[in-house]
Amino acid sequence: MIDTPNINRRQFLKLSGATSVGLLLTIHGAPALANSPTKNFKPSAFLQIDENGLVNIWIHKSEMGQGVRTSLPMLIAEELEVDWQQIKVINADSLPEFGTMFTGGSGSVKYRWKQFRVIGAKAREMLISAAAKVWQVPVQQCYAHKGFIINKTTDEKLAYQSLVSIAAELPEPKAPTLKVSNFKFIGKDMPSIDNKDIVQGKAKYGIDTKIEGMLYASIERTPQIGATLAKLDAKAASVMSGVISVQTIAGNSFPQLDHIRNSVAVLATNTWSAQQARKALIISWKNAITPTLNSEQIFTEFARQNELPGFVIRKEGNIATANQHADEKLEAEYQLPFIAHAPMEPMNTVAKVTKNSCEIWTPTQSQTRMHDALAKVLNIPKENISIHTTLLGGGFGRRLEVDYAIEAAILSSKMKRPVQVTWTREDDLQMSSYRSASLHKVSSYFRSGKLTGMKHSYSSLSVNAQQTPKELVDGLDFTILLPAKAIPYQISSLFIGQHQVDIPVSVNWWRGTFSNNHVFVQESWVDEVANHSNQDPLQYRLNLLGADRIFSVSDAPTWGELNTDISRLKQVLTTVAKMANWSNKSKTNKGQGIAIYMHDLASSYIGVIIEVSVSNSMVSIDKIYCAVDCGLVVNPQGIRSQIEGGLIYGLSAAIDAQITFSDGKTKQSNFHDYPSLRMSQCPDFEIQLLENGDRPLGIGEALTSAAAPALTNAIFAATGKRLRKLPISLNLNDIGDNNI
Amino acid sequence: MITLHINGQNHQLECDEKMPLLWVLRDILNFTGTKYGCGKGLCGACTVHADGQPIRSCSTPISALVNQKIITIEGLSVNGEHIVQQAWKQLNVPQCGYCQPGQIMSAASLLKNNPKPTDIDIDIAMSGNICRCGTYPRIKKAIKQASDTTAPSK
Hints:
- The complex is a heterodimer.
- In chain A, α10 packs parallel to α11 (403-415) and α18 crosses α19.
- The termini of chain A are far apart.
- In chain A, a hairpin with a 6-residue loop joins β24 and β25.
- The model of chain A is unreliable at 1-36 and 734-740 (pLDDT under 50).
- Chain A is built from 19 helices and 29 strands.
- By secondary structure, chain A is α+β, with helices and mostly antiparallel strands.
- Chain B is α+β, with helices and mostly antiparallel strands.
- Chain B has 5 helices and 5 strands, in the order ββαβββαααα.
- In chain B, α2 (83-90) crosses α5 (136-150) and α3 packs across α4.
């Protein structure tokens, strides 16, 4: 074997031409394999090692800040034994080999943890076999290290790129050996792979897509669901500078999957001209489904429904007896508003549609759904549609919808040119689908000072009922009932009734899903009951959790079994209490509030304590303590980012966010009346990760639900005022019943 | 015809003088690092420097910027080596990253005018920039780190 780099001039030029990726250039020790054809080794749709040693990894999950373009490649790199600098991460197009493409439910690492390690391990074993073949030694004599196969006996090295052609011909190992220790990547802080581009403004989001000949569209949609065009006068708009065309888009009926509103689009040579001309359109709408709908009507309907039997979610003990025998009762009503997602990058898509093909550049969480929707709307075969996923400037569930891409495709089809649709912030807040509001009526029954029963009746809208009624199970939307089923506290008599209300407001999943509604109620309620019983809310929770056990919701559909390990839940509670030096003794105008739960989708265990100080109705959040058990930790710094971010996103909603309606229209329009938490409001964090178990759980959606109840419990501790209505900034004077 | 001085170069433009700088940067000159977030100067995603001061490019017409030196995120440094960009990378500030060019331009301007900002100085200078992902704790740490790198200790 000759110890010289296997590199020819053509390859060198190719290496030099590749930019923005750290390439493996250290190929000392790589022998020239005479007569071996240079080709790629692509053992999986997700992985290819090329003739230059570059490791290409395709990611079919959308990067929206949760770090998936870093964490999933870490799993492959771990098993493949390569240097991080060798890796290039590519966003997968929507091709059949990537299966259903969807990013949500905090599931990317949780559910791909094994799959991605197996991909790396198979490739590693094939490269080892290839080297063993070259050296004519047993595979046991070889091991992989930093992009080389090394001969234990001779210390000879073969770079991966010198083995690709041989490895490519070898059979794929069925059950490769996965590492169980000595991790080089797993558990180590790995910076986001996109940081370098992001800080220079080079990272490409959907809105940054530029295609030759592209027009820019701004769309005026009906502000009332279901309304159709009554009158359109586009004369003034059409003659404005930069305007190319004005087009109508026929929406579809509500409710349905992939609902789009009726609208009028202005297409121009730049975004601003399109937006300006849009303001000059003279439009009126007619036949809205509910032209007089307002928020008060919605909550009145919720309250009416809450008095009806509804669907029974939990029924344990005998709630009627608990009620009859009670010597004390507490009644409380909790209310959460509709809220928007408001990711920083507004909805947008570039579409290039021809007679029989469609190419899309888009920041989406739902490639497969989009693919299906486009095939249907454009009436072209699925295989003629390609979707390129860009980076997402935030997602939070909003980009699970695909309305923005349908609009772009329709316009491109009409114009026979590439078209970019960009929603304004006003469009984003007024024309989007929202996290459903909910109203919860909770009765607590006591006898001789002891809690004997809880009756909880709640109403909300259902995403599945609106979009995918086939996914309802016995009429029930499991995304709404799951967190109610997962209430971990042991209560002798428990009755939970659910009401799905049919109101024409478009709803969608919002980071953390319905847990945000339920956990606010659950953790506020337990705090109220503890305080009513003159007990420490922390100790009361521990008592009510009962003995260490696995609490199973065996009939949870779709997402599989939901098992809460009560000991893990207690552990986050006692850990966060220690971190915060928990004290139930009130200090003047200062207070601590707790929230604990296992998130129903992420399956992670969350314990949060918020510290506030209150003066003159002004609440300041001083500190947030957080103990999280998200199982095995792949990228600790990424997990911490998600913890901080999830809580801040949850706080933003709890403090300020609400969408309200008047005359069937959304009232809020931009960040002045739909405020987002700002730096001056942001507390300090102290975070502890409890590593438990041998597999990672989810984190992206796990924390949002903790913010509201921990905050309102802290305000109660500081002031004795119980806030049961979100957002709190609008309800700080709504003191409620202090005597509970 | 209007001439703008952007990132050290003159650009001659024939577009409407009322067009906000943001859209001239993004749609005409292809400087897409500067982001659209609200169009009303409420979120700071579009922050650039005009004669060293941070401005909201989404609500500044180009007619107001003649003879000013405009710096965008692309012009802040040659290869991401500005102290603020370095601190951002070292502390893993970005999540989705969309608001970060605006955050970085606001932070760079803060440190230029006030090399040793207090927590309150940072809050005031940065509270015009919204981050929906919640990177504020790391932004604050990164500004302090960058400040320690440059500011002479007192």
